[in-house]
Structures are given as structure tokens and as C-alpha cells.
Sequence to fold (147 residues):
Amino acid sequence: MIEWKPLGAGARPVPQPVATPLVWAGAGVGALVLVALLNSVVGPDRTELALPALSLLAALLGLCARFTAAPGTALLCWLFLNGFAIPPAGVLTWAGHRDTTWLACLLTATLIGTALARLVHARAAYRRLTGGHVRPDAATGDGPYDS
Fold:
């Protein structure tokens, strides 16, 4: 006799992050395309648009990356921001406070994206293991729960 078993019977693991070199390749290509698009549409002197756009790209790349990929992702985005989004194009410069702030902003965006992804994946894994039920609060004996 045939015994039918559901395919998704076991607990599914938390998704593995993408390999760091792939994230860095995505950062390089994405930053190049984004800066080229911004330079062609609004002009090369618009860092007030380029920094938020590259920060958003860094955060999106952080959603699928490991924490160890964050510094490299931020650095690649900064290289394209500094080299091609501000004049003179193609020349890397270091303007102390400005570039430190830009690097910190890009690194923070990447770390926020990565932390957010880890929290969402951990919560989803917890929900899968507990079957969607939330335990009552142990201290007071009440709380949100599904019966």
C-alpha cells in the first residue's frame, strides 16, 4: 500500500546568506549602473541623490549578505560615489569629514539591511518550529496567543 507523506513535514532551515564575493560583485555592478544612471538623468554634481540611492542599494544587498560582507559592500559603493558621482569624474579624493560620513552612512545601511534580514529569518524559523502559536507571557500568565 502507498503511504502519502507531505513533502514539507520537517522544519525548514533558515536561508543561507549569499556568498560574499557575489554580494561584492552585485555591489560593484549595481553601484556602477546606479551612478551611471544618475549621472545621465540628473547630472554628475548631484551627490544629494547619489548617496541615498547608493545607501538604498547597500541596504538591499545587505538583505541577502553575511555581516562580513558589509565593509566591502560599503567600500565598493563609496568608490563609485567618490570616483564617478562627484567632480572631477574618475579621480578618487579624500575629503576627511565628508568621506568618513559617507562611508559610515553606507556601512550603516548595509548593516541595517543584514540585521533586518537576520531578524526576519529568525522570526520565521521560530514561527515554523512553534507552529504559529505564541506562548502566553510567563510572568503574568496572559498575553497574545492563538488557540
